[in-house]
Amino acid sequence: MAGASETDAKLVESETTETDAVAGVAVGLSAVLFALAVTALFERVSLTGSLFGVGTVTLLGGLLTALGVAVIAFGAGSRLGYVETDPDPSAGLVAGFGAAVPWVLIGGSVASQTLGLGTGVGVVAGVAVGAVAFALTVLPREDVGSTLPLGALLVLTGLVFLTGVIDPAWAWELDWEQQAAITAEFLIPAATLFAALYGGWASAKAYGGFGARGRHMGAYVLVYLNALSIVAFLCILVAYVVVQGVPGLLTGVDVGLGTGPETTILGVSVALPVSVPFVMNGVALLNDFQGVLPAIVGTFWLVIGAVLLAVPLGVGAAVFLTEYAERGRFTQVVEVATNGLWSTPSIVFGLFGFAFLIPRFGNGKSLLSGMITLGFMLLPLVVITSREAMLSVPDEYRDASAALGVSKWQTIRSVVLPAALPGVVTGVILGVGRIAGETAPILLTMAGGTFLPGSQTVDVIGGFQFTATPPFVANPALLEATSALPYQLFALITAGVGLGSNVGDPDAFRWATALILLMVVLSFYAIGIATRYYFRRRLKHT
Amino acid sequence: MAQVTDSRDGRIRGAIGEQVRRTKRFADETETAALAIISVMAVSLLGALVGFLAVSNWTVLPFVAFLGSSAIGWVRYQEETAYTIALMMTASTILILGLIIVFIFRESIPVIRYESATVFGVSVPGLRMFIQPNWDAVSPPIRYSMVPMIHGTVMVTLIASAVAAPLGVSAALFLSEIAPATVREVVKPGVEILAGIPSIVYGFIGFTVLGPWASDQFQTTGQGSYLFVGIVVGLMALPTVVSVAEDALSSVPESMKSGSLAMGTTDWQTMTSITLPAAFSGVSAAVLLGVGRAIGETMAATVMLRGVPRLTDPLVNVFYGQETLTSIIARNYGEADGLQMDALFVAGVILFVTVLVISIGAQYIEWRMHKRLGGEV
Fold first, then answer.
1. Which value does ipTM take for this structure?
2. I want to staple A183 with a disulfide (CB 3.0 to 4.6 A). Which of A7, A171, A314, B112 is the partner?
3. Which GO molecular function entries does the Swiss-Prot or TrEMBL record give (chain B) (predicted)?
4. Do the Cβ atoms of B170 and A226 come within 8 Å?
5. pLDDT band at residue B157, thresholds of 50, 70 and 90?
6. What are the chain B neighbours of A177 within 8 Å (beta carbons)?
7. Alpha carbons B92 and B71: distance in angstroms, whole number
8. How far apart (Å, rounded) are the C-alpha atoms in residues B298 and B303?
9. Residues of A (240-269) whose Cβ lies below 8 Å from B
10. CB A310 within 8 A of CB B93
11. Do B296 and A324 lie within an 8 Å CB cutoff?
């Protein structure tokens, strides 16, 4: 589709002119303003300082005014026939509402606050101003309608900043019982941000020469910007946690033969050549460096337990639903139940585990309760993804197998399940990534103290014992409260100042925990997504 | 009316009869030994379930019996055993949902009794939780009102939807209709990873970075505001909206889009006048599911809010964030016991029921859309 639009753009578009260049520059200017607004919002650019030798607010005001003038000039030029465009009779209702919203806010706040006429008059004035903007957008021809109200908005905002009506010290006290104020520190970047979006939209429309192509252009600018912002947000988030977390993670790291803790590999006791105290130690009074080893091991066992419970159950249910059951009431009820379970809030699973599992496993928080609760959370995900994978196995496979005279179960076991395996595996890995980061369910069912000494690292395999009384098998390791990474982070946050006595640098310790948690979860996602690509590529080749 | 009930009765009887006949046919076709094994499996598993529910130490016996009979069945009659086990696993999903309903409702009964209010001489259990805004678990009169938390959840959900719905639908349009294949391969996993970032990490960043910043920007006393919790929760609900809406958009038949493009429309015109209207119900289901996620979001809200259950003053003051239905559970489960714990279960019941209704509604909308587009249901 993208290719097609390029071709017909070439067919329709007349040769590039200076006016196109002007509109293009206006779009670029909006992008610059948008970026400046975001950086100012997060105080990377000081409002009281200066940029390129000009005061920041003055610069923003000047750019906004210039953008507004350009937008208006373009509309007027098109209306008077100086610029060759292809406008519709009206800009349309959506554009009308889009233009009305900021004008309602401006009209309302100016009347009620600046002129001090009270809330009632403010509402009336806001609606009136908005109605004018709406009419000015919808009634005239599209080239005027989609530029004039928005251009005026930009010029007004720019002039307010330029003349210093709103300067960096400005603040609007809301006079509420719980004190709050809207400060220039927030208002200037936020107003610039939205004005830049409107300016970019209007100038992109102008760049496309208004009409259907203009609207296409305007919409695409916004949609691309949105997608770009989501990816940028993700990158910044991860990068921020990494930057903050790495110092804490690397405290006391030592590389060299025999520096690491002793570990047994294939029956031989080896000292690891690397020592990363943060992931290899617990918390103890005599430790040089404190760490979160018990939480990492707790998360590991938690995930294992949840997978052992949920995967067989979920895959079995998916087999029954896709292969055995005829579509009817029963399958419908199961589907509604699985989707209902999928959207059930995690804290409700926690409450359920608290009421149902804890009294049944020794009346205390335990690793086992946490495993089962998380298994219940994982179950619907496994059912849904396995079903999708099995449904996408072509019926020809089943028919071919059935034609050989083998029974249904044999068909399922040797045809359907192997073909659906990639989908199931990917779904399970992504689901595990999701539950590994869940805090709320284990909060009520499993998690114990904030700091666990290294000696309390759970050892599930070594914990099994056989007893003479029912239930004959016991595993104290499974029935003890322990920690997990997401809970550890929560406990560190809520512990607040009290942390100082245990850990040298509480902030670094917290960020490092967040980083480890993020690394564990994202590695599940990376493996899941990579598996999917691997199988997809292999499918394409064969 | 009588006729309607009659015909429904008849239908139910017919369905039951059909079921009985099918079971009978299955019993006739299956060997007696296999039937016996299956029955032993079913009875022993049922026994294990009953034992587990009754908190019995002997639960392990029927469970071992189940494992043993399954093993024998697997070796001797794999076909029938596999069928039975798959059926039991399917039933387990319904069973779990049923257990959740029973247990969280059961725990919440005492406080519902305690919070009865009299209306026109009739005592309505639980009503007082919704007609006065006072939550006080310490000093008498002890009151467990849900009103402040419902207010908080509504505020957060509204703001979150305002963030997640437009951004999510626009991103879904981008992924399913606009993006070139290579860009799509980057953005789609990005959205998935966004869904994977643990909520406690969002909460931690919100608490350490966003909270102090917002408190400074809006000159509030202390940190924690519904506005920023709403924005963060909205970003967390975003991936749900994107993936469900994208599925809906790409289920619109290609022929409809090509037909429109052949008329000489731009891509954007095709999207707004063909694709979006055709997928409208699916897209609204996506938004609904996003709302459901936002309502149930716990950790970010717990860490970022103030934890004082009261209404903000005035009600629209989004610069202060007190408590939501989810965060009160996560914050108070530790020291709560007796009635207060039961009150937390009431919050859980409200959450569960709301989200379940939303989930069923979204499924119904999606089902109708598939039916209308003539696809497979």
1. 0.88
2. A171
3. phosphate transmembrane transporter activity
4. yes
5. very high
6. 313-314, 317
7. 20
8. 9
9. 240-241
10. no
11. no
Long-range contacts of B9-17 (CB under 8 A, 24+ apart): B15/A329
Residue A37 has pLDDT above 80, yes or no: yes
Are the beta carbons of B266 and A341 separated by less than 8 Å?
Answer: no
Domain limits, CATH 1.10.3720.10, in chain B: 146-372
Name which of A163-167, A484-488, B259-263 the model is least confident about: A163-167
Between CA A129 and CA A108 the distance in angstroms is 8
Looking at residue B50, its amino acid is: V
Give the DSSP letter string of A395-438: HHHHHHHHHTT--HHHHIIIIIHHHHHHHHHHHHHHHHHHHHT-
pLDDT range class, residue B377, cuts 50, 70, 90? very low
pLDDT for the residue numbered A3:
45
- Asked if A191 contacts A25 with a C-beta cutoff of 8 angstroms, the reply is no
Tell me if A289 sits within 8 A of A275, measured CB to CB.
no
Torsion, Cα A475 A480 A486 A492, to 10 degrees, reads -150
Distance CA B261, CA A1 (A): 9
Residue A506: asked if its preceding bond is cis (omega within 30°), the reply is no
Q: How far is CA A487 from CA B240, B243, B330, B345, in A?
A: 24, 28, 11, 21
Token pair recorded at residue A177: 């019982």
Whole-number Cα distances in Å, A272 to A257, A286, B322: 7, 21, 49
pLDDT at B281 > cutoff 90: no
**Which residue type sits at B187?**
V
